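User: Before I run my own analysis I want an independent prediction to cross-check against. Here's the chain; please return only the structure tokens and, at the end, one sentence I can use as a sanity check.
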Amino acid sequence: MQNYVITIARGFGSGGKDIGTRLGKELGIPCYERQILTMASDQSGIDESVFVETDEKLRGKHLANFLRRMPVSGVVEPMERDFISDVNVFNIQADIIRTLANTESCIIIGKCADDILRNYSNVISVYVEAPRAACVKSIMEKMHVSEKRANYLIQTTDKYRAKYYSYYTSGKDWTNPTNYDLVLNSDRIGREKCVQLIKEYVKIRFDQ
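Assistant: Structure tokens:
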């Protein structure tokens, strides 16, 4: 079988990253999230802090221009004025994601990977969500914060992820189930069974 890619979009606190990490171990393939930022920095020479600052969120100047400026395509050269713009930083990451999809089997968490790879036949896209109460509990336990703080983090993180996704996908809704092959409620069946479901879908999809 050719290489394949599983993209995982996730609500904050739903356990999407945890599911992706577990899935990668079971399938014996790498799981990329923060590593994409490091790879993009190494490839471009742009300081990694710039990629961290724009990781699945828009910087202030873009919010004002959200409805009237659409992203350009392609990576600009280092001598050009927009080399460290949000759009160019996104496009550098997108190039890396496409290269991964063309060369190896892997899992990619977030980064609009499902839309970047929407025309690739070797890609399975998954969206993981959970009820707010389950997400709050998860964040409180993982980050050792109060219930109030967990609610705030979920609200703000999901909000900037939704805006980021909409901006770079020409207005698509991040939570629209038609964007994905699978939509999973991690609280209803548990994270480990989510892993098993995705594994079974890989077999079905690629007729293994």
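Sanity check: The longest strand covers residues 123-129.
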